[in-house]
Request: fold
Amino acid sequence: MTQTTMSSFDEDLVRAISSSLNEPEWLEKARREAFREFVSSPPEKNPLYTKYASTFDFPIEPFRMVPGRSEVDFRSYFKGFLTGNESDIMLQANETQVHVDLSKDIASKGVKLMSFHDALHEDEALLRKLVEQRLVKSEADKYAAFVNAFFNSGTFIHVPKGVVLERPLRRMLLLDSPRTAVVDQTLVYAEEQSKLIFLEELYSKGPAGPALVASTSEIRSGTGAHVDFSSIQLLDDQTTHVSNRAIETVNDSKATVSSLVLGSSVSRSRMNFLLNGRGCFAEGYEIFFTDANQRYDFETNLVHVGQDTTGSVHARGVLKGESQSIFKGMIKITNAARNSRSYLAHHAMILDRTAKSNAVPSLDIDNNEVKATHSASVAQIDEEQLFYMMARGLPQDEAKKMVVLGFFEPVLSRIPIEQTREGARFMIEGKWQGAKRRLVDRETLLAATGEITPEVKQTEDIFERHYKYR
Amino acid sequence: MAYTLMGHPKYQVTSGQVLIDGESILGLTPDKRAKKGLFLAFQYPVSVQGVSMFSFLRAAYNNSRPPGTEPPTIFEFKEVVAEKLKMLSMDESFLNRYLNEGFSGGEKKRAEILQMALMQPKFAVLDETDSGLDIDALRIVAEGINKVSGPETGTLLITHYQRILKYVKPQFVHVLFQGRVIESGGEDLSRLLEEKGYTWIKGYKEEEQLAQQGA
Reply:
């Protein structure tokens, strides 16, 4: 992707999007700055990873931006995707059409769940502050710059100080038009001592054909706050998905991100955990299951800046067919982050000889008083396990299914959000059988499966387990 | 030998037969052999991370039940397995662990006998089930074997030692040497072996051979 082929994504388009959304001048200026980064950046900036970049690159020209589409009827558009019992949900049809349903008891506490541009008109000062202090920097990544320049939609969540939400807030994006580009920004701002669970779901409606979903997500977990975020990506197999996430934890706060990637053709994900305060926690659970010709490229960085911080990333995936993945993981501990603990692990299972998985885990530690562990493995299914299970009467297919679904468990079972945990199992099993299943509530899950198998809880301390620290 | 009977893909049978009720099982995959009523208690049970003992036992149980019968519900199965656990003095927390993962030697062997108890095979081959067990674990495992074996289940116990035979009383004892049964007898034979050692039996077998050649 070079500047000369960028005919459709130019500075005129930046202006056109900004004016069609009635944006203030400062925002248009911020977009143009991001645009300049986008044009001048190579697809992969980090020399550690450039050799893998070509496998996961994609052409951006076929996608177009269509601002100002006609209104859709949400009820019929989302038919089959909702049970009717949903509340506290933001529905997004393609790039601009948004419908929000927020229950009164939550809204009355001052909680906001709305589109970026509605929020911009409601509280410009706050949005300006968040945009000007972006966590997902345009300089860091070409696709982050792309989103910052061209975003045509977005989500804003604000949980005021001390407000504890027990029920999750949800956002569902449903795509139905080929050749479109949904470029969105999600800003989550959980203030001091608040608590938030946020579920994001990305789906395509029927065969959508080539489309692009590019997004940035910024999650701020304030002092003593706790944010659990989960993202489920089941886009059409002709859709390209690019995501850039940054999760900031400050003093005594906690944030977890659980990500399930099942869909899309090419998917590129970057996630930065910024452990900026003292005594904060950040955890990432990244699960993928690819087949056919899918490509999944994900980078996850744990950046410890504060003292006494704890960060962990557990990534696990299974690859079938000719699919390929690359995991780029980095633990960075600054000199100030004394007494911090960090854990990074990636394990992949290859089911066909034609599938491929790579991992590049790295450490960058500027401090002696830390515990840091990283590990990575790529393996095939274990024949001895299959033999053992078959010796107990399980046909080969059933034994294989158990081993493969079981492979996800050590990470899956740690996901803190029950609905995501149970839903992810249901969806992964669906993919194994060649069925597209979506995240469902417990009632629907019970109706579909008849029962929920008891779980094995993970209790061991990952930091104590490592041989170095026994 | 135990792996070969069960159909491990690494072993190829170049001559001889394995028959169950007169039918050869050599062309069958391990799961089909299990359905014919053959069971193997592994010397080194394999662990499978992420697969709970409960789910696995249930799958094994469902696959061993006679064709045409309804599989038990999750609650019915819980009762079935609770009874077997009790029989083997095993705690129910076993079920909430990953299959053999992090099990001690004794736990692994007990889990094998638990599976045998659930599947109720016609023929059970116990491959050195007594190895790696301490005294208490040996007694518990042996008692388990006694409870599960009976007129419906014939048990072939492969062992190098006499000590498990203190608890498990064999009806027949066969001595296998270099792939052949060189001596058969009752329980007395194992006691004689324990007293005199394998060299004794090797020695008198050689004498017999010489005598035959001389005659």
Chain A has one domain: 3-393. Confidence is low (pLDDT under 50) at residues 1-6 of chain A. Chain A touches chain B through 30 residues (CB under 8 Å).
